[in-house]
Amino acid sequence: MKPVFEYTKGMRETELHYCPGCTHGIAHRLIMEVLEERGDLGNCIAVSPVGCSIVAHQYMNVDMMESPHGRAPAVASGIKRVHPNSPVFTYQGDGDLASIGTNEIIHAAERGEKFCTFFINNAIYGMTGGQMAPTTLIGQKTTTCVDGRTVEQAGMPMRMCELISCQDRAVYVERVSLDSPANVRKAKSAIRRAFKVQDLKLGFAFVEFLSICPTNWGLTAPKAMEWLRENMMPYYPVKQFKCPEEVKEVK
């Protein structure tokens, strides 16, 4: 009997530390499956900074480096310039990339650094206990805005794809979601396109994953998926913002 699903060699066979229902594991698997399909597990170099995924090197079976908080794009820029023929990516959360790391990601995008960034947006700080993140929605309750985020106190949530897509040399920008099997398949296609952009040395590639954090949202995983669809998707539309002609047909 032919298997319809196999465990990717890109993931080490070890238990993940992520909370039940967390979608980090899905994102990890998709990226590693794409790298295995491409034959790049032995050639890829990844960077993860501070956040829930700081120990991603224990799970992803590729060469991986940790970086200071928010500085993964700077580290990846150096790695890619030294190893121009190796696929390089950063894996960053919203409490990292959209806060302390905003400077680094904007400048990497504007320079057109030829690596990929995979950005996990779950609208909250996960590792440190559920504080308000730059992506926390208006009215959403966290440990640092117990009555809900307000515009007056914290401004509007940051839309990173919209911001990155304004940079001329960010050539591929797409927001995907991990809320359903159909959307997970679309997310995998976005990862393939991001690496193809890198293969062709076209410029910077950025993929945002709408994700859930059931523990810090105080919801079960199914309810968290519903909350994502009802609340995050209207504010963070799932769409392709920029895509070069050379990779539009990549599925």
Automatic annotation (TrEMBL):
<keyword id="KW-0560">Oxidoreductase</keyword>
<feature type="domain" description="Thiamine pyrophosphate enzyme TPP-binding">
    <location>
        <begin position="56"/>
        <end position="195"/>
    </location>
</feature>
<dbReference type="GO" id="GO:0030976">
    <property type="term" value="F:thiamine pyrophosphate binding"/>
</dbReference>
<dbReference type="Pfam" id="PF02775">
    <property type="entry name" value="TPP_enzyme_C"/>
</dbReference>
<dbReference type="InterPro" id="IPR051457">
    <property type="entry name" value="2-oxoacid:Fd_oxidoreductase"/>
</dbReference>
<dbReference type="GO" id="GO:0016625">
    <property type="term" value="F:oxidoreductase activity, acting on the aldehyde or oxo group of donors, iron-sulfur protein as acceptor"/>
</dbReference>
<dbReference type="InterPro" id="IPR029061">
    <property type="entry name" value="THDP-binding"/>
</dbReference>
<protein>
    <submittedName>
        <fullName>MFS transporter</fullName>
    </submittedName>
</protein>
<dbReference type="GO" id="GO:0045333">
    <property type="term" value="P:cellular respiration"/>
</dbReference>
<dbReference type="InterPro" id="IPR011766">
    <property type="entry name" value="TPP_enzyme_TPP-bd"/>
</dbReference>
